[in-house]
């Protein structure tokens, strides 16, 4: 049996590529975006009452990780990428039906537009449904998951003076907490766990319209080298 679903909206996100997006929501509070609703949900009626809610669940499609053949086992990056697990034991992006779910902060409600933060969503992510977070039902104080018992350990993020200056300037231009966004995302060490970077090796990712480049001057430390406008196209 098949069911057809269609998006109620799409996210315009600070994250323009998958690399360096936090692995779960809430890990980077400065990660912001706008959920743009599509007709007929782009009218005020569809979001009436939502201003009383601090957080929402978003159900979405991992539109850049869809696969024809379902996997039974996956290798979660969190486990170093070399240990396989049953797909239903993980939050891997490659999964049956390609459906993801994230709890995000609702900063502002407008007709047709929800301003959200703490997101882990790629730009253009199709949203299938939006539901209010209900603390009395959704907080489970006795819950445990010994595979993912705590948030990732953060590593220090240092800045080249020129990169910090650029980040402040672009943050003002974009009216976004750009320095915080870069620090919060890089502190989680986006590098694949199996790579041991040399100090010479540079990494990069796009945040908003900016290319951010960094390296590891010593193991477990990140230094941001450059924040420049991304080339168009
Ligand atoms: N919180 C969600 C969940 O549990 O279903 C997502 C968890 S998944 C491990 C998070 C990763 O999904 C991010 O780090 C990013 O690389 C990737 N991602 C986010 N949006 C995506 C999209 N639209 N298509 C493909 N991958 C995406």
Automatic annotation (TrEMBL):
Pfam entry (one): TrmO_C
InterPro entries per record: TrmO-like_N, TrmO_C, UPF0066_cons_site, YaeB-like, YaeB-like_sf, YaeB_N_sf
Protein's UniProt keywords contain Methyltransferase: yes
Keywords: Methyltransferase, S-adenosyl-L-methionine, Transferase
Entry-linked CDD domains: UPF0066
GO biological process per UniProt: methylation
Domain TsaA-like, residue spans: 5-142
Gene Ontology terms, MF aspect: tRNA (L-threonylcarbamoyladenosine(37)-C2) methyltransferase activity
Family affiliation: Belongs to the tRNA methyltransferase O family.
Protein name: tRNA (N6-threonylcarbamoyladenosine(37)-N6)-methyltransferase TrmO
Source organism of the structure: Pseudomonas helleri
Gene name of the encoded protein: tsaA
């Amino acid at each position: 049996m098949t069911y057809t679903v269609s998006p109620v909206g799409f996210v315009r996100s600070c994250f323009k590529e998958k690399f360096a997006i936090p692995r779960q929501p809430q890990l980077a509070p400065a990660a912001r975006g706008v959920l743009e609703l599509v007709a007929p949900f782009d009218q005020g009626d569809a979001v009436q009452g939502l201003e009383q809610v601090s957080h929402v669940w978003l159900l979405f499609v991992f539109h850049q990780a869809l696969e024809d053949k379902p996997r039974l086992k996956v290798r979660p990056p969190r486990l170093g990428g070399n240990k396989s697990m049953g797909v239903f034991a993980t939050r891997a992006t490659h999964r049956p039906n390609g459906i993801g779910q994230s709890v995000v902060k609702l900063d502002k409600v407008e007709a047709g537009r929800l301003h959200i933060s703490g997101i882990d969503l790629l730009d253009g992510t199709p949203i299938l449904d939006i539901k209010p977070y209900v603390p009395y039902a959704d907080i489970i104080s006795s819950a445990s998951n010994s595979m993912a018992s705590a948030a990732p350990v953060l590593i220090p993020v240092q800045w080249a003076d020129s990169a910090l200056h650029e980040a402040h300037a672009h943050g003002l231009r974009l009216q976004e907490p750009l320095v915080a966004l870069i620090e919060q995302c890089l502190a989680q060490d986006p590098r694949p766990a199996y790579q041991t970077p040399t100090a010479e090796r540079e990494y990069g990712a796009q945040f908003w319209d900016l290319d951010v480049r960094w390296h590891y001057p010593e193991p477990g430390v990140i230094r941001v080298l450059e924040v420049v406008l991304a080339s168009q196209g």
